[in-house]
Amino acid sequence: MPTPDRTHHNLNRLRAVFAVSAIALLGVTVWALVADHRREWRQYQASDDRGIEQIVLPELTVDYHFCQVGRTDRCVTCHQNIDVPQTDYLWLRRPYSHPRLDLYVGADSPHPMAEFGCTICHEGQGRATEFRFASHTPNDMNQRRAWRERHDWFRDVDWDYPMLARRFAESRCLQCHPDVTDLEPSPRWPDPPAPKLMAGYHLVRQLGCFGCHEIEGVEFRGEPVGPSLRDVGSRLARPFLADWIARPARFRPDTRMPRLFGHEAHLDAVARQKARRLEAVEVDALAQWLRDACQPVAVPPSATDSTSPSAAGSASVHKDASVERGRRLLLTRGCLACHKHDDYPRATGTQGPNLSRLGSKYATARAAAWLADWLRDPARQSPRTRMPNPLLARDAAAANDPVADLTAFLLASAEWNPSPPSALQEADLDELVQAHLAARHGPDEARRIVEQGLSDREFAATPGDERELARPITRRKKLHYVARRTIAKRGCFGCHDIPGFELARPIGPALSDWGRKDESLLAFGRVERLLAADGTADRAATDHDVGFYLDAVRGRRREGFLWQKLREPRSFDYQKMAGRGFNEWLKMGRFSLDDARREAIATFVLGLIARPPASKYVYRPDAATRAIVEGRKVLDRHACVECHVLEMDRWRLAYESDEFDAPPPIDQFDFMRPRIARERLDASARPGPDGRARSEIVGMPRRTDDGQVAALEGDKEDAQGEPLPVRAFTLWQPAAIAGRVWPAGGPEVLLYDDQIIRRYPAWGGAALELLYPAALAEARAAGASVVGSEVWGRLPPPLVGEGAKVWPDWLADHLLDPQPIRPGAMMRMPRYTLSLDEANRLVDFFLAHAGADRIVRRATGSSSAPVANRRDEAMRLLTDHKTFCAKCHVIGDSRPGGATATEGPDLAVAGRRLRGEYLRRWLARPQMTLPYTPMPVNFPPSGEPIGQDLLPGDSREQIDAMVDLLEQFDAYLREKTSIGDMVPKS
Amino acid sequence: MNRNTNVDAMNRKWTRRRFVGRVAGVAMAAWGVPRVVGAAGPSRPGASDEWGDLVGRFLYDGAPPPRKKLKVDKDIDCCGRFDIRDESLMVGPDGGLAGVYVYARDRRIRVCPELAASIEKEVLLDNCDCIFKPHCLAIWCERQTLKIVNSDPVAQNVAFSPLGDAPANIILPPPPNRAATATWTFRRPQRKPAPIACNYHPWESAFILPLAHPYCTVSRADGTFRIARLPIGPIEFQLWHERVGYLDAPRFARGRITATIAPGENDLGTFHLAPALFAQES
Fold first, then answer.
1. Measured between CB atoms, which of A712, A785, A934 is closest to B205?
2. Are B210 and B80 in contact (CB under 8 A)?
3. Quick one: B169 exposed, middle or buried, by C-beta within 10 A (0-12, 13-18, 19+)?
4. What's the whole-model pTM score?
5. Using an 8 Å Cβ cutoff, are A198 and A467 in contact?
6. Is the Cβ–Cβ distance between A175 and A189 less than 8 Å?
7. How many other β-carbons are positioned within 10 Å of the β-carbon of residue A174?
8. Which of the residues A742, A785, A888, A900 would you substitute to probe the B interface, choosing the one with the greatest number of B C-beta atoms within 10 Å?
9. Among A84, A206, A947, B112, which is least packed, fewest CB within 10 Å?
10. In angstroms, what separates the C-alpha of A936 from chain B's closest C-alpha?
11. pLDDT tens, N- to C-terminus, chain B (282 residues)
């Protein structure tokens, strides 16, 4: 039993322990309170202490240690008021407003924050409430440094989904938008939603990356991007072929073909020598094989007839052909919409190859004949080519053959010469053949086959390329073998149609989930050393982009790998050649890309993650949007938008209310009066925070003779009394400006530069900048006193609202087999190799784009009797050549006379093409529908109607009668024709 | 002596010192150009001390260029009968240059009330012999309307689209149809003439200059011009010709010249214009 002293002592000890514990607890409590009070996020919340805010997304799971767990995004705890624009509620504290509140975060946006959270797009650790643990990723070295100083930032390797650097922020759009083209700008979102991702997508599409790399989930309508090589040997000489294969950019600096040979920066001296020797063999073998294995399509006599060998024996063309006419044809036939040529430096077409120097490429008479035949009908030589038939057939009336002229021009520049081929070393050839064989047969057997060839028995038992090596072995057979092995090794069939390789599989790794590829599987090798040795690392200090990527290389991260792979694809072999045979070296070719394009491609590839989020997050367009998305792919494939404008220019304006007077009045029918909602009108007059009201106009700015937006003299003057420049904008849609309605096709809106706050360029029509000056010059040379804007009528028309303008069945027919519509057009639409499916998709696109119904029942002679009874009178007006239609329009076999350029479309078929409602509006006031048309107002809305001796009635009745006749033109003609009278009476 | 330099120097002097007096003065007389006829000269009825006339002449400094025959390929029965020639550069036998617009730049210029009261209410544009007559027109927006007439036995149309004003494309059937005559009101003064075209007959061409005042003239066939009843004081005039746009010659930078109007007639003298100015790409 303890003594009282001992008990007392124990009690004291307990008290001491208790006291210390209490103090410790108090300390911890105080520390906890202080720490809690000093939490990082509190500094962003300031006085309005909301605590930790979070968005719980149970359906949007993330992999948490092999478990799919719903996300909880607490980002808004710090990113306070991110959904409020910087310009609103200025007293609110907010470090950032989201830069695209129209698209993201905002409650009215398609991605409201409460529904989508943050990490679905940005990645990162959404549960973190500290900067350090949220797995932020700096966008460059400056930001990284700043974050380190300010936030103790570190790279959290324990979180698998670090935030994407801002430069790749668009990558994740792809997971929910696999159609990709739905991310293009649209009238609803004229600011491009994902410009970098789209640039990457188009580069991947145009460069044909999918030829070597499987990319599932994204539709590329993946035909090879290069030309068929089935018959190139018949038209290209061996020196040209060898030079082109070895280094394509030597002949064509802007070629899309990657460079497959001559990458030496990463090779040591021994490997370099080896590469030079063996690559020379490969190039030579390929050139030889392409000529020997060629499967030419016969050039018909019609093509060869027009050519005759010249004295020099080189390519020649018809003796009457004119290079000068050919040069002009290249422009006026629209070739430059898809092709470039040195003679036209402003041409921007990239769909087809650059056509400069073709004389050096097609240097033989046969090649010239081939080119002429190709121009006559490309699909005859290559059925799957995307090149349309330019319909250059000789006009019966024209003395010149446009094909001969164009051929003469294209072949005229022949100054370029291929570099002389180096002599092939037999030993190198044998070494390469042996290297290929050894992989299968071992070195001894390989040596025997090289020396003796395959016996008959071996030949019968051998599949594939080795069958080229049958006895008796020859040098040519070895070359053929090497060529086939090289094609298989380097994957040429990924871009080209090559005989014998129709079923070959892509050689590159699949990219379908590359955005989530395990970084530990990326074979960086010793590339970091190469970057240090070649001076790239030295640039990191001054170039923050290089610094960013170099850091990613050092950190063995995907973006670093991609960056270097696209810069120097084979550099990962650096100092790793020892013990690896020539055929085991890296093979990817180098594409000619600048930094911005590489980053665009990286943005796209990083977005390929193969695993979409929960289905409710995946974008499912409605039928109309899907039609537009699908149609865009066809438009892209055939480069339709190079010539045709599909959305007019769209300008946003800001102005003070007294800066616009009422527009000059326009005489118009009631049914033509533009209707604009009262709210929109009021909004256009309501001053914003800066005291200026806002509006948006759609149409076409007036241009100078050389196609640039014209700066004209405005009414306002500067301090020196000089007029300030003003832009004249023709409206194609009615607009609300300063509370007043401005009609389409009415007076031009005059705008000073400070009133234009944003200019969204037209979608499409890049080639028109080149064609417009040419058409204007041509019209003036023909003696016409044309006003500039009328010349647009001679060029490919804008297709805005086309679906509501024409009948869908006519449109499908026209797309498949275009017939001339406007006799005065400078160029006619070529015939594309569209499939029926593509034509249908385009028709659906135009209908959806114009918001029109697919099928509206065509009137079938059922117009009301009073109107239908007037067809004879309407026909009198139609055929009147003194004042009315027949004066300018072709009607069946009746021609108006005068220059073809002034002739109007054939009215006998207008009703088959144009919908009735369109015709009615068109006749009422043509300029409202097509502002640049030269067609006069035939039926004035007020005043005395004209043509009373032909078609009595007021203007409205006259229009109804004319629409009825045009729609029922065939029926009317049938009524007037008696087949019975034609049947011989027996 | 280089007249260009002297005229320029003179202009600057007038502007700087606000020299009010006779326009050409002694300096012009010394070069042999017609003297200014001031108060002592023949006075016009109604002239007062507040208003003066401006006269002058444009001479084409070279042999009169031949006028190209235009391609007439429409309505040949009617239009083929006429010898239709290019009107873009009209030079008389003695070198007089027609078709030069001379107009006051200032839109707020004071207008002589008597002139305003006496001015014609209509300006006539006639489609006659398959061309527009006259080739160059000017119109005072507030007080005048354009009367468009078709005198030919074939239909015509008249299309123009002045900057910021309502565009027009009017059909004119042949007379006696009442629609062969139309009228048009311009709502907005322009800085320079707007082209007029006929879409039926692409060779037809004319120009019209809607202004906020009546002080505009076009040089006549002999190259002379007169603007009546200008307010006295310095006035800046704009010179424009369809081949060159603003007559941007050394004497008139950006096609402008300042003259100080004195009561009576103010003679600017004769301006010699180099043929190179009117060269046209063929």
1. A785
2. no
3. buried
4. 0.88
5. no
6. no
7. 26
8. A785
9. A206
10. 5
11. 344 444 444 444 333 333 333 333 333 333 333 333 333 334 444 446 889 999 999 999 999 999 999 989 889 889 999 999 999 999 999 999 999 999 999 999 999 999 999 999 999 999 999 999 999 999 999 999 999 999 999 999 999 999 999 999 999 999 888 888 999 999 999 999 999 999 889 899 999 999 999 999 999 999 999 999 999 999 999 999 999 999 988 778 889 999 999 999 999 999 999 999 998 754
Give whole-number Cα distances, B269 to A507, A891, B55, B223, in Å. Answer: 85, 58, 8, 11
Cβ atoms of A789 and A707 closer than 8 Å? no
Q: In three state form, how does the secondary structure of A832-901 look?
A: CCCCHHHHHHHHHHHHHHHCCCCCCCCCCCCCCHHHHCCHHHHHHHHCCCCCCHHHCECECCECCCCCHH
Give B41→chain A minimum CA distance, Å: 35
Q: State how far the Cα of A585 lies from the Cα of A588, in Å rounded to an integer.
A: 10
Expressed in percent and rounded to 5, the helix, strand and coil fractions of chain A are 45, 10, 45
Q: Do B202 and A786 touch (CB under 8 A)?
A: yes
pLDDT tens column, A209-218:
999 999 887 7
CB-based contact B251:B257 (threshold 8 Å)? yes
Please, is A210 exposed, middle or buried when counting C-beta atoms within 10 Å of its C-beta (0-12, 13-18, 19+)? buried
Structure tokens that stand for A493 in this block: 């069939």
Strand partners, B131: B128
Cis peptide before A193 (omega within 30 of 0): no
CA atoms within 13 A on the CB side of A709: 18
By mean pLDDT, which of A324-338, A385-399, A401-415, B108-122 is the weakest?
A: A385-399
What's the half-sphere exposure (Cβ side, CA atoms, 13 Å) at B195? 18
Question: Which of A666, A727, A880, A883 to mutate to test binding with chain B, by most B CBs within 10 Å of its CB?
Answer: A883
Cα–Cα distance for residue pair B159/B165, rounded to 1 Å: 13
3-state secondary structure of A981: helix
Q: Which residues contact A590 (CB under 8 A, 6 or more apart)?
A: A258, A259, A263, A567, A568, A569
Q: Look at A936 and B174 and tell me if their CB atoms are within 8 Å.
A: no
CB pairs under 8 A between A and B: 109
Chain B residue numbers with beta carbons less than 8 Å from the beta carbon of A943 are 179
Residue A644 has what DSSP assignment? -
Closest partner CB to A664 (pick from B157, B166, B195): B166
Provide φ and ψ at A762, rounded to 5°: -60, 150
Using CB atoms, which residue from B75, B167, B173 is nearest to A747?
A: B167
Contacts of B199 in chain A (CB under 8 A): 790, 888, 902, 934-936
Residues 37-96 of B with CB under 8 A from A: 70-71, 73-76
**B145 vs A contacts (CB less than 8 Å):** none
Report which secondary-structure segment, H or E, holds B147: strand B145-150
3-state DSSP call for residue A284?
helix
Q: Quote the distance between the C-alpha of residue A649 and its chain's center.
A: 18
Question: Which chain B residues are within 8 Å of A787, Cβ to Cβ?
Answer: 159-161, 195, 197
* CA-based nearest distance A424→chain B, Å: 58
- Model confidence pLDDT, tens digit, residues A119-130: 999 999 999 999
d(CA A820, CA A828): 6
Half-sphere exposure of A936 (CA within 13 A, CB side): 26
DSSP string, A142-188: HHHHHHHHHH-----TT-SSPPPPGGGTTTTHHHH-TT-GGGS--SS
- Please report residues of B whose CB lies closer than 8 A to that of A666: 166
Q: Spell out the domains of chain B, with CATH numbers in brackets.
A: 63-88+110-216 (2.60.40.420)
Nearest to A959 by CA among A944, A973, A938: A938
